[in-house]
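Module 6 notes. Inverse folding takes a fixed backbone as the condition and produces residue identities as the prediction. Think of it as a translation problem where the source language is geometry and the target language is the twenty amino acids. Below is one complete input and output pair. Work through it position by position during the lab.
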């Protein structure tokens, strides 16, 4: 049941309508002994997420709800209920491409708001109407840099998401693009010495991700400065968009030479569920001087014949609209509905709320790291500052941990976390297939929806 509170003016109007001077007079017919003259003994007000968690705990008394500590490009964050309610409106949910601006102002304005949010969060001058996802967005950014610089050599950090790099390789292999990988330093960040040794006048761009695949925060402004000294572009990739609420934007610095040229990434963290991998929404932001090389669409704001504000598709340099050889991209659409979800999320949480969410991520991650170091034999790798992901390394060789758990199971031991659904003795993502040199290592993620109790159970599983 929905509760809409009345303002003081509303109450006075209703009392006047029924002929009562006050609320006290309205209830005068109720015997005094039956009237409660004190406030109800209720706990303090809960936020929407806390209220849902309160009832979820009571609804799951007989089973432990599974907790996840995996990120690696797709993240579980709290999603306000209002998002589903708003995107379910037919004018958004079943809308077609807004080619006719005069009948699609709502859709166009929503896309414009998305572009504005992304530009603000990345510190860039212009952002497009969205792309398919983060991985194809990164590939599009590299193609864009190739068009701008007319060079083919790209230096890509090995700490960029491995599956993003695989998509880039697919795009690049038949276009004459040369991809060279730059390793990571012992602290988990890009190896700047190795980068300096490979930078030259033939370099089109340097690609770095922050937070990177290990969760560590890169020195994006230092990377940009190094790239610009060789007339190369700087591309910053973002998989965990929530981090934009607390980290200094890659496109923002007092010195223009230390600003990224393109910031690209995945906005799934802004109110979009994991959904088994999609659909999600990519974004790309850049400097205004490169706007005509941007892939996808751009919605602009102007005035109509009568001087009224209006929104319209300003640039759509794709092959469906112009000659193929002049097009910047062959993507045939964007992710308007998912972009709308991200826009509503950002509008609901606001700048302060987004920062608070980031702080919760950082604090809970620090708590998990501290507990793992103090209570388990696992080693936490990489000393650089991190956001909400980190790498742990099992002292046992690959396969030994699994065999030990199987042995305990044969002896009749129960799951360390109380139920098969919560069996988190090996949480996170195994890294051996991406980074074999790390051995028996796993990537863990902790977000605001992971409670302290869940973290403690996870650590207990690692300690057993």
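Target side of the pair, the amino acids:
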């Amino acid at each position: 049941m929905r509760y809409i509170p009345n303002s003081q003016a509303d109450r006075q109007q209703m009392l006047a309508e029924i002929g009562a001077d006050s609320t006290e007079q309205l209830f005068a017919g109720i015997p005094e002994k039956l009237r409660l003259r004190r406030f109800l003994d209720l706990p303090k007000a809960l936020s929407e997420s806390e209220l849902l968690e309160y009832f979820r705990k009571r609804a799951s008394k007989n089973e432990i709800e599974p907790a996840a500590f995996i990120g690696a490009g797709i993240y579980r964050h709290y999603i306000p209920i209002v998002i589903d309610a708003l995107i379910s409106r037919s004018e958004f949910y079943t809308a077609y491409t807004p080619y006719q601006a005069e009948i699609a102002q709502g859709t166009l304005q929503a896309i414009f708001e998305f572009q504005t949010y992304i530009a603000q969060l990345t510190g860039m001058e212009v952002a497009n109407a969205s792309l398919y996802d983060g991985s194809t967005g990164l590939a599009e950014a590299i193609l864009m840099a190739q068009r701008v610089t007319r060079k083919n050599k790209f230096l890509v950090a090995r700490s960029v998401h491995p599956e993003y790099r695989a998509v880039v390789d697919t795009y690049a292999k038949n276009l004459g693009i040369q991809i060279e990988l730059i390793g990571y330093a012992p602290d988990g960040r890009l190896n700047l010495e190795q980068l300096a040794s490979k930078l030259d006048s033939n370099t089109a761009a340097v690609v770095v991700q922050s937070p990177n695949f290990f969760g560590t925060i890169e020195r994006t402004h230092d990377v940009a400065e190094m790239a610009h000294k060789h007339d190369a572009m700087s591309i910053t990739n973002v998989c965990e968009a929530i981090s934009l609420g607390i980290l200094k934007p890659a496109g923002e610095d007092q010195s223009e030479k230390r600003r990224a040229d393109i910031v690209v990434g995945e906005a799934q963290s802004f109110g979009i569920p994991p959904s088994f991998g999609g659909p999600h929404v990519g974004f790309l932001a850049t400097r205004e001087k490169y706007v005509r090389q941007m892939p996808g669409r751009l919605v602009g704001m102007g005035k109509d014949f009568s001087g009224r504000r209006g929104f319209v598709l300003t640039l759509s340099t794709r092959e469906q609209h112009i000659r193929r050889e002049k097009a910047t991209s062959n993507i045939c659409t964007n992710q308007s509905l998912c972009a709308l979800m991200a826009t509503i999320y950002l509008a609901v949480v606001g700048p302060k709320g987004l920062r608070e969410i980031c702080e919760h991520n950082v604090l809970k991650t620090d708590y998990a790291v501290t507990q793992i170091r103090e209570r388990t034999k696992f080693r936490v790798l990489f000393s650089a500052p991190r956001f909400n992901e980190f790498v742990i390394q099992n002292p046992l060789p690959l396969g030994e941990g699994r065999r030990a758990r199987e042995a305990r199971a044969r002896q009749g031991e129960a799951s360390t976390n109380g139920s098969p659904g919560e069996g988190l003795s090996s949480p996170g993502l195994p890294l051996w297939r991406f980074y074999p040199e790390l051995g028996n290592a796993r990537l863990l993620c902790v977000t605001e929806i992971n409670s302290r109790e869940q973290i403690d159970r996870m650590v207990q599983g690692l300690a057993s």
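Reference fact for the lab report: Residues 157 and 303 are 44 Å apart (CA to CA).
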